[in-house]
Design brief:
This protein has twelve helices and no strands. Among the domains are: 38-119, Cytochrome Bc1 Complex, Chain D, domain 2, CATH 1.10.760; 141-221, Cytochrome Bc1 Complex, Chain D, domain 2, CATH 1.10.760.10. 46% of the residues lie in helices and 0% in strands. By secondary structure, the chain is mainly α. It has helices at 2-17, 41-48, 50-53, 68-73, 76-85, 105-119, 141-151, 153-156, 172-176, 180-189, 210-221, 233-245. The structure holds heme C (2 copies). The site of one heme C has 24 residues, from helix 3, helix 5 and helix 10.
């Protein structure tokens, strides 16, 4: 009987000694950092980017940021600008406080620098004569159509309507939600995590030239429509009419 009482007392003492700080005050270790104080890349990436670009940058709805080919093509200034300001008319948000986002300039510098430090691979494009990240001209959509036939139709279908190997890319809703640079980036880097080839491997033994990339993007962009997602042009006019009645 006595033994049990002592055991209970002992257990109670153990419990009490577990709380090193006064009740109601969290100990230092569980104190939560203010969002602007976070300087751990993994936390910043997981909280802000992984939802679209995938865990560990492996790709999701948006491209794989950990693709070393992407990181070799895109320079820090371009990456930083997109993270800070977002890409208008796409789902890529602006993260800089100056653009209405939640991250400090220091945090954006950190994300940009760490992406390259962790995921970049120096020399990965040695000897590859890679195209430039940004287009050097507006491009020729008409020539782009021919380029499309040579490099893309085998997977995406004759007119980009989708084929047996890859999805529709001339669809008006798809084109409404991606920027020209977004298209260019994917044409250059592919989506390795989804089996989409980079600019060197669309056609066997025939890497695309910088000009061909620019032109095929111009052709895709020329397929954008004024009112995406509207199956019938007339339904728009009708809607307008009925709302004018009120
Ligand atoms: C809600 C979805 C979403 C979130 C969250 C998001 N992105 Fe994006 N991101 C996109 C989309 C979509 C694009 C492509 C935009 C376009 O069409 O150019 C993109 C583009 C980018 C690009 C440019 C790719 C290129 O073509 O060069 C970078 C860099 C980037 N995101 C980094 C980040 C980082 C870093 C974070 C977190 C701080 C982040 N993104 C969070 C959706 C997102
Ligand atoms: C060997 C097959 C193949 C070839 C050739 C190819 N692609 Fe793709 N492409 C894919 C696959 C696979 C995906 C990813 C899955 C999907 O979207 O169907 C993809 C994805 C894309 C996407 C992103 C689609 C999305 O929904 O996010 C674009 C844009 C694209 N390709 C453009 C092109 C262009 C332009 C060319 C020619 C220069 C090309 N592709 C050549 C297989 C190919």
């Amino acid at each position: 009987m006595n033994a049990i009482r002592y055991l209970c007392l002992f257990a109670l003492l153990l419990l009490l000694s577990g709380c090193s700080s006064p009740p109601g005050q969290p100990s230092k270790s569980v104190e939560v950092l203010a969002p602007s104080e976070i300087t751990d890349f993994r936390t910043l990436y997981a909280d802000n980017c992984a939802g679209c670009h995938g865990a560990e940058g492996r790709g999701g709805a948006a491209i794989a940021l950990s693709d070393p080919v992407y990181l070799a093509i895109a320079d820090d200034a371009s990456i930083r600008k997109v993270v800070a300001n977002g890409v208008p008319r796409t789902s890529m948000p602006a993260f800089a406080q100056s653009s209405g986002g939640m991250l400090t300039d220091k945090q954006i510098d950190l994300i940009t620098g760490e992406m390259r430090a962790r995921w970049g691979r120096q020399g990965i494009l040695d000897g590859a004569n890679p195209p430039s990240y940004a287009a050097k001209s507006a491009g020729n959509a008409q020539h782009g159509e021919t380029v499309y036939g040579t490099y893309c139709a085998s997977c995406h279908g004759a007119q980009g309507q989708g084929g047996t190997k890859a999805s529709a890319i001339t669809n008006d809703s798809f084109l409404a939600l991606i920027s020209d640079q977004g298209l260019r980036t994917i044409v250059i880097t592919g989506r390795p995590e989804l089996g989409a080839p980079d600019w060197r491997k669309n056609a066997p033994g025939k890497p695309m030239s910088d000009q061909e990339i620019t032109d095929v993007v111009a052709w895709l962009a020329s397929k954008r429509v004024q009112t995406p997602g509207q199956p019938y042009a007339a339904s728009n006019a009708q809607h307008q009419e009925s709302s004018n009645v009120h």
